[in-house]
């Protein structure tokens, strides 16, 4: 018998005789924020040889796929793509400085290293380019390639760009998750191509995002300006606080 699945009002998927919980975007974003904090806390304060360090870092791999997913969701739901792009640009500029301070980069060498926000911005640009009706296919591919190239200084670089693009193009769960895994495998094989401080097995943590994305119910949940901008504010703020904590402690 084929099990029938549908979303019912109390936030659960009804699958034949049992219920599977579903999550709105606010709940999934909160998980992403929490795992991101654990990841950065481990980098700032923990010994790399400890089990706790490895556990926090592997949990931290969940964050970026979720961020990429909701950048693409934001693209489809925003009423003003220019304002959305501008918000992300401002967040990328502001986040560069605490990111550089926390991870020991020069704040003046943007082209050397910057935050994942820049990669997300490049991903949004790639998605806008892909959906443009004014550009031919060859030029779109060229411009998307430039977006991948421009993202190189950022954490997660072109992987984040490709994830945003994929999530924006593929709207059904099966195609979306299959594409996510394919790009995830590219991320994992990066370890073989060039040196990385993150061990190969910790990169597998990205697949922890799959159940969360699969259980997304398409709903935003309660929303106000504090919640809307809180996710933008928390990213640079928590890195700045961790940086000051490393100085004090």
Describe the 3D structure:
This protein has 249 residues and is mostly helical. It has one domain. Helix content is 67%, strand content 5%. The chain is built from eleven helices and three strands. The protein has helices at 25-45, 51-60, 63-77, 81-103, 116-130, 137-150, 157-169, 173-193, 200-203, 209-214, 225-248; strands at 5-8, 12-15, 18-21. The chain has a three-stranded antiparallel sheet, with no helix packed on it. Strand 2 (12-15) and strand 3 (18-21) form a beta hairpin. The radius of gyration is 19 Å and the shape is globular. The termini are far apart. The model is unreliable at 1-10 (pLDDT under 50).
**What is the number of helical segments per DSSP (H or I, 4+ residues)?**
11
Helical coverage, percent range: 55-70%
Summing up helix and strand content along with how strands pair, one would put the structural category as mainly alpha
Question: What's the structural domain tally?
Answer: 1
Please indicate the percent range of residues in DSSP E strands (runs of 2 or more). under 5%
Topology readout:
Layout: E1 5-8, E2 12-15, E3 18-21, H1 25-45, H2 51-60, H3 63-77, H4 81-103, H5 116-130, H6 137-150, H7 157-169, H8 173-193, H9 200-203, H10 209-214, H11 225-248
Antiparallel strand pairs: 1-2, 2-3
Helix pairs in contact: 1-2, 1-3, 1-11, 3-5, 3-7, 4-5, 4-11, 5-6, 5-7, 6-7, 7-8
């Amino acid at each position: 018998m084929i099990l029938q699945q549908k979303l019912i009002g109390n936030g659960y998927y009804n699958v034949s005789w049992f219920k599977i919980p579903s999550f709105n975007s606010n709940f999934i974003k909160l998980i992403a924020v929490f795992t991101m904090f654990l990841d950065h806390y481990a980098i700032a304060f923990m010994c790399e040889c400890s089990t706790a360090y490895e556990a926090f870092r592997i949990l931290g791999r969940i964050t970026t796929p979720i961020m990429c997913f909701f950048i693409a969701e934001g693209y489809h739901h925003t009423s003003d793509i220019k304002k959305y792009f501008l918000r992300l640009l401002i967040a990328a500029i502001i986040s560069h400085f605490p990111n550089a301070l926390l991870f020991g980069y020069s704040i003046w060498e943007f082209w050397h290293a910057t935050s994942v926000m820049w990669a997300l911005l490049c991903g949004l640009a790639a998605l806008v380019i892909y959906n443009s009706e004014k550009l031919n296919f060859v030029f779109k591919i060229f411009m998307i390639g430039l977006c991948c190239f421009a993202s190189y200084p950022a954490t997660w670089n072109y992987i984040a760009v490709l994830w945003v693009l994929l999530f924006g193009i593929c709207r059904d769960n099966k195609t979306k998750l299959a594409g996510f895994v394919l790009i995830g495998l590219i991320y994992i094989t990066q370890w073989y191509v060039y040196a990385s401080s993150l061990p190969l097995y910790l990169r597998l943590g990205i697949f922890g995002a799959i159940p969360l994305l699969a259980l997304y119910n398409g709903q935003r949940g309660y929303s106000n300006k504090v919640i809307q901008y809180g996710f933008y504010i928390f990213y640079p703020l928590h890195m700045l606080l961790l940086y000051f904590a490393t100085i004090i402690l």
